[in-house]
Design goal:
Chain B: It is an enzyme of class 7 (translocase). The complex is a heterodimer of chains A (about 650) and B (about 350). Chain A has 19 helices and 5 strands. Chain A has about 650 residues and is mostly helical. In chain A, a hairpin with a 6-residue loop joins strand 4 and strand 5. The relative contact order of chain A is 0.13. Chain B has about 350 residues and is an alpha+beta fold. In chain B, strand 11 and strand 12 form a beta hairpin. Classes of the chains: A mainly alpha (about 650), B alpha+beta (about 350).
Chain lengths: ~650, ~350
């Protein structure tokens, strides 16, 4: 492999970038090399990170809307006591669908999609490390999501909660196929997340622009890195658990059956060993978005880069030591409870440090109150609020009272909507111009923000009090004499206000895509590398691969900032750099568009889906997977000149 | 005026039914947790207000024209460069003095966080210890068995003949600890009486203990807090805390077998019960009915509610429950029962005689 080299660019600082003939030729060549194939085949075989990332985001947003509709229906049912909008059977399906959809089909894939879309641009490379694995991850996720939602339409939707506690979800108390559908959906989405995280780690470690040493990586990239590692360590626990459950149900094993020596609590340990890190998996990338937006709109670097990075890594570790605080009511020994309480409170320290660093950034900055910043400011209030109620839930003695009540529902919606969805919206307003070339309407955006913010608080704030008044979670109805009626009605009204805000957002997106103000390459005068290329970025991301010499790549750019040369433009090549210091190491040719990832995803889809009904599904699926994987890994014919070189 | 206020209070009390709130503790356990709640609430509110006020001040402090482009971003970029190139930068360095001051603030805030968390941790641990140390000798022992979707209460006694089995209504003596032995026959449930104590799960294959004590007489509502399937929403119970004498009286009465029916009508009702499908699931002490699938009905008429504290125990509801319980609590395990009107009438009379 030959080494890519770094040369000073001949570009002039202020002159308009007049393209030389050589550049135009290179641009055309890159265009040919990186453009997807045409037609339906091209659409299905596309493996570029911007395409796959966008698909993740759009699909996850559609699932978000479906989950939102489920929430609206639930709130309608709970608006009045003894209401009959939904019966218990349907209500249990709907709340299970809502939870599973929001956690597995919206939050995690959305964060993955955002990372996939942005990270390669932000680190200045042409594609993610394993493009076909990306496509495979997307199709697997899509099949899993479709499986669960189609089953729901066929009255086969899971009904034991997104946590599916055994023995309720076991063969004896949940006959039928509903829980099997849920368990296989988990397998699909976890497989997808694992593939995505492997790809993310490799991309971040090996494809960074020269000069972007680890300690110059944008905080967004750090957040994605920590997230990817957390997925790598937590998802296997839930895959194992859902596999045990599926085996208990399908082939009569007794992992969770106490009557046969199994253990009902084993499920909870495995599930929460994944389930608690899951919260951080969702919320760390949101912190990354937050740091990106905040730096640009406070017009300064984020205060305390090192503490921020250490805090994220610390959260990544501590996040694995808290799972038992979901199980305080199961009757653990006192010492264990104190230990997990201490761990749960400890995670507030790195979270607090991050909040303080951001506040310091705000304090030392010159704020531009534009829409992306609105969402970030709201994040501070809501997330801190949710974090504090989390401290209450993490303290074991207090948890015994508030656990499994509406207090918890209120808490995690503050953390997940306030802590992840608000930054996501902020990030959406911020990056929309990069990927469409147009700005979102500021006026509609403000309506969206204020309606969503007000509706959110109307919905979830009263739930704290409902919980203290003894309203348990997951009830499809309540008696009129409980005293819960008014607050429930208020919460329902709030949900509808949020929904109106969301509708305005969708309108805004569709309107602005075509008619929004033209954005230009860097409308916010932002600092990261994705703003150094055109909006929307070309299929090869950058005409000249950039180099970096500071944490805020574009703000610390020199007039004669070097560019990378020597990477072939007639083949899909990327520059591989070293892990720590991002010194150029070698060029790597990437695999191009292919239908094989889709084929492999379909065969694993057959395996998992058919195995809901018969164990033969595994056999059939394994056969298909063998064939399709062989196709995927079939060696590529060498290029002609390489053949010539090998001739003696 | 006074009468008006009294009326309001009564109406309010009427609307509320049996007490069910974490914020109105009626026992030592709940009282300790309530005190802990107050500490947490005070500290967390303080922190929240501080953070939000700081944020708002920061926003008010140094805002600039929202149009981008007029002000250069502030980054510490100059340090990276040799002197002659600094002029080319369009970024200007952050003020070192400001940064130092900010660093001090962040460090102070972080240290304060650690201190506050320690305070919370210690108060929580103390509360936890106090909860565990509640006196349990001389405790009344009651076995609680969770079923989909009702509660079985078995009062233990060294004398086997004094074992008492009842359902959905737990009577306890005021001022005496009650040790509840929690298990489940089917799925995981959770026993929770907000006014008296925190919750504890009922897990198949394991026995958990929860100490319950009421300091004031009253009726407290309890419920299942862990999702347990179809009718998780309608799996409640009442805790009736009475003075010890009243409790003993209740217990002695409950230990009696059902009185044999004296009237023709109730005798016929008993016949209907014993020859119908009822005996497949229910028991009435003093008769041949001894199944344990459903709640024990020996003193059914003495209970305030039906169907796990879902309905008031009145004749109309009882009739509706027998004929088609599925319309009142869909998915529950009692099948609809078809009875000729006169049989139903007799059965109701008999069940209502089971005081």
């Amino acid at each position: 492999m030959s080494s890519g080299s770094v040369l000073p660019s001949p570009a002039l600082p202020d002159a308009p970038p007049l393209e030389s003939e050589a550049e135009a030729r290179e641009r055309a060549q890159l265009e040919r090399t990186w453009s997807p194939l045409g037609g339906l085949k091209g659409w299905l075989s596309d493996v570029h990170h911007t395409t796959i990332g966008r698909r993740f985001i759009v699909t996850a947003f559609i699932f978000f809307l479906l989950g939102g509709v489920e929430a609206l229906v639930m709130r309608l049912q709970l608006a009045r006591p003894e209401s009959t909008v939904l019966g218990p059977d349907l209500y249990n399906q709907v709340f299970t669908m809502h939870g599973s959809t929001m956690m597995f089909l919206f939050a995690v894939p959305m964060m993955e999609g955002v990372g996939l879309l942005l990270v390669p641009l932000m680190i200045g490379t042409r594609n993610a490390a394993f493009p076909r694995l990306n496509a495979f991850a997307y199709y697997t996720y899509l099949i899993g999501g479709l499986l669960m939602n189609v089953s729901f339409l066929l009255d086969m939707g899971p009904d034991t909660g997104w946590f599916a506690y055994v023995p309720l979800s076991g063969p004896e108390y949940s006959p039928g196929k509903r829980v099997d559908v849920w368990a296989q959906m988990i397998t699909f989405t976890e497989l997808s997340a694992l593939a995505g995280s492997v790809n993310m780690i490799a991309t971040i470690f090996k494809l960074r622009a020269p000069g972007m040493s680890l300690n110059r990586m944008p905080l967004f990239v750090w957040a994605q890195l920590v997230k990817a590692f957390m997925i790598l360590f937590s998802m296997p626990a839930v895959m194992l658990a859902s596999l045990y459950l599926a085996m208990d149900r399908l082939i009569g094993t007794h992992f969770f059956n106490p009557a046969e020596g199994g253990d009902a609590l084993l499920w909870q340990h495995l599930f929460w060993f994944f389930g608690h890190p899951e919260v951080y998996i969702i919320f760390l990338p949101a912190l990354g978005i937050l740091s990106s937006v905040l730096a640009v709109f406070a017009r300064r670097e984020i205060f305390g880069y090192l503490p921020m990075v250490l805090a994220m890594v610390a959260i990544g570790f501590i996040g694995f030591g808290l799972w038992v605080h979901h199980m305080f009511a199961t009757g653990l020994p006192q010492l264990g409870q104190s230990f997990f309480t201490a761990a749960s409170l400890m995670v507030a320290v790195p979270s607090g440090v991050q909040i303080f660093c951001w506040l310091a950034t705000l304090w030392g900055g010159k704020l531009r109150l534009r829409l992306p910043l609105y969402w970030i400011l709201a994040f501070f209030a809501l997330f801190v609020f949710g974090g504090l109620s989390g401290v209450m839930l993490g303290a074991y003695a207090l948890d015994l009272q508030v656990h499994d009540t509406f207090f918890v529902v209120a808490h995690f919606h503050y953390v997940l909507i306030g802590g992840a969805v608000f930054p996501l919206f902020g990030g959406f307003y911020y990056w929309f111009p990069k990927f469409t070339g147009r700005m979102l309407s500021e006026r509609l955006g403000k309506w969206h923000f204020w309606l969503f913010f007000a509706g959110f608080n109307l919905t979830f704030f009263p739930m704290h009090y409902l919980g203290l008044m003894g309203m348990p979670r997951r009830v499809y109805t309540y008696a009129p004499d409980r005293g819960w009626t008014d607050l429930n009605l208020l919460a329902t009204v709030g949900t509808f206000i949020m929904a109106v805000g969301l509708v305005l957002f969708v309108v805004n997106v569709f309107w602005s895509r075509k008619r929004g103000a033209v954005a230009g390459d860097n409308p916010w005068d932002a600092d990261t590398l994705e703003w150094a290329t055109s909006s929307p970025p070309p299929p090869y991301n950058f005409l000249h691969l950039p180099t970096v010499r500071g944490r805020y790549a574009l703000w610390t750019q020199a007039v004669d900032q070097p560019i990378v040369t020597g990477v072939r433009s007639d083949r899909p090549e990327v520059l591989v750099t070293r892990l720590m210091d991002a010194e150029p190491d070698h060029r790597m040719e990437q695999p191009g568009p292919s239908l094989w990832p889709l084929a492999v995803a379909l065969s694993s889809g057959v395996a998992f889906t058919v195995s809901i009904f018969t164990p033969w599904g595994i056999v059939i699926g394994a056969g298909l997977a063998l064939i399709t994987l062989t196709g995927w890994f079939w060696p590529k014919k060498p290029y002609r000149e390489e053949l010539l070189e090998e001739q003696p | 005026m006074k009468g008006w206020a009294l009326l309001c209070a009564l109406l309010l009390a009427g609307c509320r039914g049996a007490a069910q709130s974490v914020l109105e503790p009626a026992g030592p356990s709940a009282a300790r947790i309530h005190a802990l709640w107050n500490v947490f609430l005070a500290i967390c509110t303080g922190v929240f207000v501080l953070v939000v006020v700081t944020m708002l001040l920061a926003v008010l402090r140094r805002r600039v024209d929202p149009e981008i482009g007029s002000s250069p971003p502030e980054v510490d970029a100059e340090a990276l460069l040799p002197k002659e190139k600094r002029a080319h930068l369009h970024a200007k360095a952050v003020e070192p003095a400001t940064e130092r001051r900010l660093a001090q603030w962040v460090a102070t805030a972080a240290a304060l966080t650690v201190v506050l968390l320690l305070v919370l941790l210690v108060t929580n641990t103390l509360t936890g210890k106090a909860l565990a140390a509640l006196r349990s000798e001389h405790a009344l022992e009651v076995e609680v068995v969770g079923h989909q979707w009702w509660w079985e209460f078995k009062y233990r006694d060294p004398e086997p003949s004094r074992l008492l089995n009842t359902a959905n209504e737990l009577h306890i003596p005021v001022g005496r600890p009650v040790a509840l032995k929690l298990t489940s026959r089917d799925v995981i449930h959770s026993f929770w009486v907000p006014n008296l104590a925190g919750k504890r799960d009922l897990i198949p294959g394991q026995e958990n203990t929860l100490l319950l004590q009421a300091d004031k007489p009253g009726v407290y509502r309890g419920l299942c807090a862990e999702f347990c399937g179809h009718q998780h929403a309608k799996m409640a119970f009442l805790v009736v805390a009475e003075p010890p004498e009243a409790f003993e009286k209740w217990r002695e009465h409950q230990l009696q077998p059902a009185a044999p029916p004296m009237e023709l009508l109730t005798q016929r009702g008993q016949q209907v019960f014993l020859t119908g499908p009822c005996v497949l699931c229910h028991a009435i002490q003093g008769t041949s009915a001894s199944a344990t699938v459903g709640p024990n009905l020996t003193h059914l008429a003495s209970r305030q509610t039906l169907a796990a504290a879902t309905l008031p125990n009145v004749r109309g509801h009882l009739a509706g429950w027998i004929l088609n319980s599925q319309s009142l609590k869909p998915g529950n395990k009692m099948p609809p029962i078809t009875l000729p009107p006169e049989d139903l009438h007799a059965l109701l009379a008999y069940l209502e005689s089971l005081k």
